[in-house]
Amino acid sequence: MIRFASQIHEWEIYELAIQQDHVHLYLGAQPKWSPSEIMKYIKGGTSNKIRELFPDLDELYWGATFWCDGFFVKSAGSVTDKVISDYIKQQR
User: Fold this and answer.
1) Rounded to an integer, what distance in angstroms lies between the CA atom of residue 29 and that of residue 59?
2) What are the pLDDT digits (tens) for 70-87?
3) CA-to-CA distance for 66 and 80, rounded, in angstroms?
4) Looking at residue 69, what is its pLDDT?
5) How far apart are alpha carbons 23 and 88 in whole angstroms?
6) Considering 17, 42, 59, 82, which has the largest number of Cβ atoms within 10 A of its Cβ?
C-alpha cells in the first residue's frame, strides 16, 4: 500500500523496512510535496484500506485511529545515501 501511494504520487522509495510497531521509509519526492502531505497520504491511505479489508478488527484493535499521531522526518543533510540505506536495511 505504501508502494502504491508512492507510485501514484510519483515518489521514489529508496528503502522501506516494516516492523511490527513502526516503519522506516527513505523516500524521495518533488519539492512541491511537504513531509506532512506525504505522510497524510501514506498514513490515511493505508489506514482506510486496512479498515476496508478487515472491518471486524476495527473496534477491537484500533478504535478511532489506526496509526499513532505524528511521525519523524529528517533530511539527508550531511549523511550519504548509502548510510541511510544501510541503516534501514538493518531494520528488516
Assistant:
1) 34
2) 888 888 888 898 999 999
3) 33
4) 83
5) 10
6) 42
Instruction: Give the span between the Cα atoms of 82 and 86, in whole angstroms.
Output: 6
Rounded to whole angstroms, how far apart are CA atoms 85 and 31? 21
Is-contact 2 14, C-beta < 8 A?
Answer: no
- Three-class secondary structure of residue 61 per DSSP: helix
Per DSSP, helices labelled H in the chain are 2-9, 35-53, 81-90
Quick check: helix, strand or coil at residue 57? helix
What is the Cα 69 distance to its own chain's centre? 13
Q: Which domains does the chain have, with CATH numbers?
A: 2-90 (3.30.70.1290)
Residues whose CB is less than 8 angstroms from the CB of residue 76 and which lie 6 or more positions away in sequence, other chains included: 84
